[in-house]
Amino acid sequence: MTYRDPLHIHPDVYTVFWNNEPAFTLNKRLLDQQNAWGNLTEIIEAHELKLCIYHLLHETKDKALIKSLASDLTEIEFELQELWGFSKDKMFHRFWEYPKCTCPRLDNIDAYPHMRYISISCPLHGDE
Ligand SMILES: [Zn+2]
């Protein structure tokens, strides 16, 4: 990948697209701070894959597939942490944001990143 001066990069360059529509824009300051511009392509690809898995989660009712997609998401979160130059730490995964997750959202937001509240009946993260 060729080097581009972060000061002159158009926001489209660090925007994640889904179905040809902008889904969200990456945090430019964090890209600077983490010196992660060199991994920008991989970071965007990982986010696109994540959105694709979100879509599949919305579509499917297959319990085994849901579990497997949830574990794929965990792998992608670890990959993203590495690409961003953070340590690979499950405590920082915002897993309650996943489609169909029924883990307690507010408890998890309050306790982030010190504690994870898992609902045993969650189709993604539970034991049932
Ligand atoms: Zn869950």
**What is the strand tally?**
2
Strand arrangement within the widest β-sheet reads 1-2
Sheet-strand content, in percent, reads 5-15%
Main β-sheet, in a few words? Answer: 2 strands, antiparallel
Average pLDDT works out at 94
Molecular structure report:
The mean pLDDT is 94. The protein has a two-stranded antiparallel ribbon with strand order 1-2. With 128 residues, the chain is mainly α. The protein is globular, with a radius of gyration of 16 Å. It has a domain of 89 residues. The protein is built from four helices and two strands, in the order ββαααα. Helices cover 43% and strands 7% of the residues. Bound molecules: zinc ion (ZN). The site of zinc ion (ZN) has 7 residues, from loops. Zinc ion (ZN) binds next to loops.
Keywords:
mainly alpha, 4 helices, 2 strands, 43% helix, 7% strand, globular
Give the SSE layout.
Blueprint: E1 15-18, E2 21-25, H1 28-33, H2 40-59, H3 63-84, H4 105-111
Antiparallel strand pairs: 1-2
The chain binds zinc ion (ZN).
The site of zinc ion has 7 residues, from loops.
